[in-house]
Amino acid sequence: MMSGVLCTALTAMAPNRSEESWLAGSSVIAHLLERIPNDIDIHHLQQDAFEHAIEQDTNVLTRLGFVATESNVSFSELERTFVHALGTVKIDWVIEPERPKPLIFDPTIGVRANYAAVVARKIEMYKHGRLAKHREDLLCLLRSKASMETELDIACFRSQLAALELRAPTMRRN
């Protein structure tokens, strides 16, 4: 699911996405999830692209009435919270060691990671943290597999989930 504030932010920032600054994470698959992601991950290979994206995205959101209220900075990451009448959204700009291939041009949200890359990362996060949100996201994606089959090997995805002992609940007959 996608909230109004998430949709507004993604659509507004779409022209800023490129091979040097692509959308990643749960916001790529938000339309397939049962929960509403509250953050937007934007990945980069280079420091200059990272800095340029922060400036461009902040300017776009500010012009739309978003107000930056909080920032957390680390060596290769900046997370900034933006508040708007529609709600709150966090943007997480990150420098990554490699670019997923292929990147996909999405006419609504701009250049994004492919589903296979997003799912692989979600599986890794689940392996390391076993968080319920990642489990539920993976099971939801399994139910939405037809929407991803052009970018994801569904048989491989199923086997990866089986290895993690994740299976979609089945209906029992009494």
Question: Could you walk me through the main structural features you see in this protein, from its secondary elements to its overall organization?
Answer:
It contains 5 helices and 7 strands; from the N terminus they run αββαβββββααα. It has helices at about 5-15, 45-65, 115-130, 130-145, 155-165, and strands spanning about 20-25, 40-45, 65-75, 75-85, 85-95, 105, 110. Helix 3 runs antiparallel to helix 4. By secondary structure, the chain is of the alpha+beta class. A hairpin with a 2-residue loop joins strand 4 and strand 5. It folds into 2 domains: about 1-115, Roll (Nuclear Transport Factor 2, Chain: A), CATH 3.10.450.620; about 115-174, no CATH class. The mean pLDDT is about 95. About 35% of the residues lie in helices and about 25% in strands. It has a 5-stranded mixed β-sheet. Strands 6-7 form a two-stranded antiparallel ribbon. The relative contact order is 0.17.
Compact summary:
The chain has 174 residues and is α+β, with helices and mostly antiparallel strands.
The CATH class of the largest domain turns out to be Alpha Beta
**Strands, total number:** 7
The rounded Rg comes to: 17 Å
The secondary structure category is alpha+beta
Q: Which band does the percent of strand residues land in?
A: 15-25%
Looking at CATH, the homologous superfamily of the largest domain is: JHP933, nucleotidyltransferase-like core domain
| Spatial arrangement of strands, main beta sheet | 1-2-5-4-3
Q: Mean pLDDT, as a whole number?
A: 93
Number of domains: 2
User: Which sequence of SSEs, written as H and E, runs from N to C?
Assistant: HEEHEEEEEHHH
Q: Which term fits the overall shape?
A: globular
Q: Number of DSSP helices? A: 5
Helix content: 25-40%
The largest sheet is:
5 strands, mixed
**Measured distance between first and last alpha carbons:** 33 Å
Please mark out the parts with pLDDT under 50 across 5 or more consecutive residues, or reply none. Answer: none
What's the CATH topology label of the largest domain?
Nuclear Transport Factor 2, Chain: A
CATH architecture of the largest domain: Roll
Protein name: Nucleotidyl transferase AbiEii/AbiGii toxin family protein
